[in-house]
């Protein structure tokens, strides 16, 4: 069974139709890149997967391991193994990253009927992931994302992903606002998590990120649908020729 | 001031007048004179109402339908409720009177002199009852006219109290009654004190408390005062703190309210010496039809002082939270640094928050500012937490706890801060 199956998905936001019969399948172990011009619906796809309120699915379905996500709240989806790395991670004043991570991890485990993580186990998990991402202890004690630079926020997203160990991770323009060093750190974090049981949907504008996170498959979105699919060569072609041909075909 | 208003006195005002006549007759001369002058001030306006600007949002004439009879003295022995996890010297004010039989009487050993209120009033030394900021306030005048008892504490020069002093107010009657406790705390130069006041009472009675604390902070002294309102849900309580801050002193004031029906906490603070700082904050956790008003008047009478005000409230159901904060900077009070923030978190469509900051600045070389917000929980924040697997109610609780926790943080005493935090967590758990 495919890990993620999206069938004929139609989505409206504030009465405006954004996704327009989108089909997409992601297999276990795959890294699927989603590329497309501004306004093609890439971020909407990310949000609707995570279950953001006000993103109305009017038709079609999203299946994770064959199970429909349509009626699930965001927290239920997370417990099923879905993770969204936000394009714009929000600041959570008053809640330290440690408390946040621990609350999230235990909530997911509880929902799955697993025991809470022990303190030493949790500390080990966080410390290891944090050091690989160049996140110091001081940052872990601070309130989530408060006063963090853009790059620190993105690294914090990858840290959360590493601790929560999702089955399907959706990275929404994780490369935006990153310099080349930060990009390499973030890509390294993603690559360490690649496994035959886990899949990634990597949403990006630019081919650059895909030099570091090499995709198995590349999908092109335009006007709320997937209009072309191919291997990593497709990303290079897009970089060279632009999106014009696909946008015209979709129209 | 207004003859017509007095002609149509409300039943509550008539009952207060009768109570005044009875206690005046029973008081020694010095105290009768104090009561007389205070009641004359009260009578000039009667119960405060919405046309008096300071009381605009807490219209007592409408909200206080009747004045309860004065509470009878409680039994001679008992124990007031503790503050769990806080090892304090407890002094009990039961039914508005100091009860030694309910109190830790060894406070003298800690370097604190204790005198009963009326004993002090008959032979005042170094301070006169009523000689505090806010003395002309209507609630304070009413307290002075009807005061039922209390303590006067004097913390000796350079005495640093290891344990907090806990002034525990408690009502233990079998029917609703009224109390007018009055206490004075004088902290001599260089001394350090953590003073906690709690207000407790049964939920079954609509009892009434009008308390006044006069706080005199000497030069270089450090005083933390935490006022905790956990009254029964039908209670009406007005609490006033009138503080004078000396030179180079440090003052930390915190108003916490989770109980009571109609509550007003007032602070009148005056900087009387240069180079002092005050941190004044509060946290209110409200539900049902609770009405809680925190009103401050901070007077920078001299220059070179710093004041910070931060009040936060969480409003559920049809509760109402009011914040009024006035900062007055006197002419010549240069280099004043005063900042005020009030933030309300509305958890229901029916909840209401009023924020009224006021700055009256008569000096030119000062830094003053204020910020006020009122709104619902941030939907983007909630989604972010839920997207990480935290269920909706837990996400809300975490965000509310973080919001209120940021204000509780100012309380320096670890035990008291721990109690406040646990109480906030329990309040949130009860919501679910």
What does this structure look like?
The complex is a heterodimer of chains A (251) and B (432). Chain A has 251 residues and is of the alpha/beta class. Chain A has a domain at 4-90 and 166-250: P-loop containing nucleotide triphosphate hydrolases (Rossmann fold, 3-Layer(aba) Sandwich), CATH 3.40.50.300. Helix content of chain A is 39%, strand content 29%. Chain A has ten helices and twelve strands. Chain A has helices at 42-50, 74-79, 97-111, 119-132, 137-141, 150-164, 180-193, 209-212, 232-241, 244-250, and strands spanning 4-13, 16-26, 31-35, 55-64, 67-68, 82-85, 92-96, 143-144, 168-172, 199-204, 217-222, 225-230. In chain A, strands 6-9-10-3-11-12 form a six-stranded mixed β-sheet, with helices on both faces. The longest helix of chain A has 15 residues, at 97-111. By secondary structure, chain B is α/β, with parallel strands linked by helices. Chain B has a domain at 377-432. Chain B contains nine helices and 20 strands. Chain B has helices at 3-7, 11-25, 29-45, 60-63, 117-122, 138-146, 379-387, 392-408, 414-431, and strands at residues 89-94, 97-98, 112-116, 151-155, 165-170, 178-179, 182-187, 192-200, 208-217, 222-229, 236-245, 250-257, 262-271, 277-286, 291-300, 306-315, 320-329, 337-346, 352-361, 367-375. In chain B, the strands form two sheets. Chain B has a ten-stranded mixed β-sheet with strand order 2-1-5-8-10-12-14-16-18-20, covered by helices on one side. In chain B, strands 3, 4, 6, 7, 9, 11, 13, 15, 17 and 19 form a ten-stranded mixed β-sheet that branches. In chain B, a hairpin with a 2-residue loop joins β1 (89-94) and β2 (97-98). Chain B is globular. The A-B interface holds A 50-53, 73-75, 77-79, 83-84, 86, 89-90, 92-95, 99-100, 103-105, 107-108, 111, 143, 160, 164 and B 378-381, 383-392, 394-395, 398-399, 401-403, 405-406.
């Amino acid at each position: 069974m495919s890990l993620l199956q999206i069938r004929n998905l139609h989505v409206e936001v504030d009465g405006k139709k954004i996704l327009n019969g989108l089909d997409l399948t992601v297999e276990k172990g795959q890294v699927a890149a989603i590329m497309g011009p501004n306004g093609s619906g890439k971020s909407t796809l990310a949000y609707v997967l995570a279950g953001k309120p006000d993103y109305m699915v009017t038709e079609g379905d999203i299946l994770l391991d064959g199970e429909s996500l349509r009626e699930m709240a965001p927290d239920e989806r997370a417990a099923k193994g879905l993770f969204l790395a936000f394009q714009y991670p929000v600041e959570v004043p008053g809640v330290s990253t440690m408390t946040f991570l621990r609350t999230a991890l235990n909530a997911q485990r509880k929902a799955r009927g697993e025991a809470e993580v022990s303190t030493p186990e949790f500390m080990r998990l966080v410390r290891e992931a944090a050091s690989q991402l160049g996140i110091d202890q001081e940052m872990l004690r601070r309130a989530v994302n408060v006063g963090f630079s853009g790059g620190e926020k993105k690294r914090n997203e990858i840290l959360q992903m590493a601790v929560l160990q999702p089955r399907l991770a959706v990275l929404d323009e994780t490369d935006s606002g990153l310099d080349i060093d930060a990009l390499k750190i973030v890509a390294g974090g993603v690559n360490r998590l690649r496994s035959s049981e886990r899949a990634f949907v990597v949403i990006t504008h630019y081919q650059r990120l895909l030099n570091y996170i090499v995709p198995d498959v590349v999908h092109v979105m335009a006007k709320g649908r997937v209009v072309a699919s191919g291997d990593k060569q497709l990303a290079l072609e897009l970089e060279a020729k632009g999106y014009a041909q696909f946008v015209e075909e979709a129209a | 001031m207004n003859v017509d208003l007095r002609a149509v006195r409300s039943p509550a005002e008539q009952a207060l007048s009768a109570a005044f006549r009875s206690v005046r007759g029973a008081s020694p001369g010095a105290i009768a004179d104090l009561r007389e002058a205070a009641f004359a001030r009260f009578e000039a306006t009667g119960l405060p109402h919405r046309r008096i600007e300071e009381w605009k949002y807490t219209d007592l004439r409408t909200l206080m339908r009747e004045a309860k009879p004065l509470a009878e003295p409680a039994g001679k022995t008992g124990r007031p409720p503790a503050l769990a996890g806080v090892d304090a010297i407890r002094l009990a004010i039961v039914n508005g009177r100091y009860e030694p039989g309910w109190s830790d009487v060894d406070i003298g050993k800690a370097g604190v002199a204790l005198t009963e209120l009326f004993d002090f009033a008959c032979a005042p030394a170094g301070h006169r009852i009523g000689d505090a900021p806010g003395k002309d306030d209507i609630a304070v005048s009413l307290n002075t006219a009807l005061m039922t008892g209390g303590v006067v504490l004097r913390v000796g020069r350079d005495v640093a109290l290891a344990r907090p002093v806990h002034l525990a107010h408690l009502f233990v009657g079998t029917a609703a009654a009224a109390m007018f406790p009055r206490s004075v705390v004088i902290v001599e130069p260089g001394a350090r004190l953590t003073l906690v006041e709690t207000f407790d009472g049964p939920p079954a009675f609509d009892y009434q408390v009008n308390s006044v604390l006069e706080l005199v902070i000497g030069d270089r002294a450090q005083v933390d005062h935490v006022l905790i309102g956990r009254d029964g849900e039908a209670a009406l309580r007005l609490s006033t703190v009138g503080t004078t801050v000396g030179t180079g002193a440090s003052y930390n004031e915190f108003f916490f309210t989770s109980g009571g029906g109609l509550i007003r906490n007032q602070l009148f603070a005056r900087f009387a010496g240069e180079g002092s700082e005050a941190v004044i904050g509060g946290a209110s956790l409200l539900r049902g039809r609770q009405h809680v008003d925190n009103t401050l008047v901070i007077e920078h009478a001299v220059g070179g002082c710093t004041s910070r005000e931060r009040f936060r409230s969480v409003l559920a159901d049809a509760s109402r939270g009011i914040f009024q904060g006035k900062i007055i900077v006197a002419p010549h009070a240069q280099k004043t640094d005063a900042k005020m923030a009030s933030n309300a978190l509305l958890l229901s469509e029916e909840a209401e928050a009023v924020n009224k900051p006021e700055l009256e600045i008569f000096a030119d070389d000062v830094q003053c500012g204020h910020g006020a917000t009122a709104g619902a929980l941030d939907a983007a924040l909630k989604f972010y937490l839920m997207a990480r697997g935290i269920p909706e109610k837990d996400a809300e609780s975490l965000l509310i706890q973080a919001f209120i926790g940021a204000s509780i943080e100012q309380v320096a005493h670890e035990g008291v801060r721990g109690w406040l935090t646990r109480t906030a967590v329990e309040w949130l758990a009860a919501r679910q």
